[in-house]
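Appendix B, example 12.
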Amino acid sequence: MEDSMLVKEYLRVHGVDNVLELDHDELIKEYEKTIREGIKYYHDLLEEDDSAMDFLEPKKRDVIEVLKKAQTTDEIYEILYEFLHVYTPTDLIAFMAEIKMPVPYTRLQRIIAIVHARVQEEVLDRIKVDLEALPPQERETLIAYYENMRDDIMSLAALHKKYRSAGTLEYLRSTAETKLNIMQSFLSKDLETEYKPFYDGSKEKRTLIGKILEISGIYTKNELFDMKIEELKVTHDEIMQQVLQKEREQQLIKKYIEIFEDFAGISEDEFKEYCYEMQDSTSEEIMSEIISHFTTKNHFISNKINNVLSSRDPSKNLLKNRNIDNE
C-alpha cells in the first residue's frame, strides 16, 4: 500500500496500538478517524473561551463617556474603530441613543456600517496572512468558514491572537498537510466535499458551471455548485448531446419544410419519395411537427403528405391521429 509505513508510523505516534496487525481497510479507517480528530482542533479553537479578551472589553459607561467627548466626525470614526473590535454595531447605536451626538442619527448609522466593514476586512485579512503556510485546499476552506463569521469580530480577533502563536500555526500546518495526504491517497472521493470552497473557486468548476448555464436553464447556479466536478462533466455532456440532437432535429424539420414548400417544382413520384424518406429517417414527433407547420401555413400540403403516408401505412395517418389526440 502506498505510504503504508508512513501511515502506520503516524498512527503509532498518535496512540493507536497494534498498527502492524491492521489490514488495509482497518488502517484507512483508523487513519481517517485520527486525522479527523486532529482537524477538530480548528473548531475547538473557535469554541474555547478567551479569557484574555475579557479584561480588554470596556464597560458600557466607559464607552458612553468616551463618546460624549467626540466633537467631530473624525473623532467619531476613531472611537468607533476602537470599540467595534469589542462591541456590535447594534450595541454602539444603543449607547449613542443615550447621549446627544454631534451628527444626525441616520448619518451615525452609515458611519458605523462603514467602520464595521473596515474592521471586518482587517481582521479577516490578518487571518488570511496567518493561514498562508497551510495547503491551499485547507486554507481556502477555512477562510470561507471565517468569512461566514465576519459579524463575530471578537471571535475572529481572538482566533487571530491564537494563530499568532508559532506553535499553534505549526500544529495546524502539520495536521492540515497530513489530512490532505490521506484524503488524496485514500479518500479521494471525499476531496470535493471536504474542501468544497477550494473546488468551488477552481477555474475548472466555474468554467463547467458557466458552460452549463449558457446552454441550459434546467439547473440554478446553486444547484450546480452543489455538484462535484465529475458530476458537472457528465451533466454538461448529457445536455450537449440533447442540444446537438435538438439542432439535428431542427435541421431535418427545416430541410423537409423547404422541400415540401416547393412541391410545385417536383413530380408526384418525387413528392412520394421525399415523404417516404422523411418517414424512414425521422421520428414521429418530427413528422408531426412538419405536418403541423403545414396545417397552419398550407393545409393542402399537410393533407397531401398525410395521404401519401397513410396510403403506404394506414397507421401513419398523422393528421388524423393528431386530430383525435386533440379531441
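The first helix runs from residue 4 to 13. The radius of gyration is 35 Å.
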